[in-house]
Amino acid sequence: MASNDFDALIETALGESGGARLLLVLLRSETDAQTSGSGSLTPVLANDVVVEAGVDLDAVVRQADLVGLPWDLIMAAVLTDPTGNVPSSAAAEPHLKKMADDLMRSGDVSRYAVFDRTGNRLSISRAH
Questions:
Q1: Closest by alpha carbon to 110, among 80, 77, 83?
Q2: What's the rounded Cα separation, in Å, for the pair 115 and 118?
Q3: What is the pTM of this model?
Q4: In sequence order, which residues have a C-beta less than 8 Å from that of residue 57 and are 6 or more positions away?
Q5: Segments making up each domain of the chain, as ranges
Q6: pLDDT tens profile 48-97
Q7: Residue 6 zone, left/alpha/beta (φ > 0; ψ -120 to 50; rest)
Q8: How many CB atoms lie within 10 A of CB 47?
Q9: Strand (E) or helix (H) holding 39
Q10: Shortest CA distance to 25 belongs to which of 101, 106, 123, 105?
């Protein structure tokens, strides 16, 4: 049984036939002190990970913290390959770029899951 929403995403991805790659964009949250509850999210780092046994939130957080950049949230998606193979890092790259671009350009980020550092899923909305 998964201990948090992030690990539940991993469990689902592990069930994909042929394997999957986890797409991760680490985000830094900046809150505007003038307007309660509003702020911005900035992509800090994008990475992809093959979904396999041993990949869980703790492993992702440890790896992300090794980079030394401050981050608060994880935006995630799962990439599969219709041929049944695990997608390569090269295949993941344009998807990671799109994730970061969607966030920066106030695009549709509803297709991505966003988690806090403890693995709880969050809902983010964009300013209009």
A1: 77
A2: 8
A3: 0.86
A4: 3, 4, 6, 7, 10, 115, 118, 119
A5: 5-30+39-120
A6: 999 998 899 999 999 999 989 999 999 999 999 888 889 999 999 999 99
A7: alpha
A8: 16
A9: strand 39-50
A10: 101
Residue showing tokens 């986890």: 22
pLDDT tens, residue by residue, 24-60: 999 998 876 555 566 788 999 999 999 998 899 999 9
CB half-sphere exposure, 108, CA atoms < 13 A: 2
Per DSSP, the three-state class of 64 is helix
Which amino acid does the sequence have at 122? L
CA separation, residue 10 to residues 39, 78, 116, 126, 127 (Å): 29, 9, 15, 26, 30
Please provide the size of the chain in residues. 128
**Tokens read off for 69:** 């950049």
Q: Give the chain's radius of gyration (CA, Å).
A: 15
Instruction: Give yes or no for a contact between 115 and 74, defined as CB atoms under 8 angstroms apart.
Output: yes
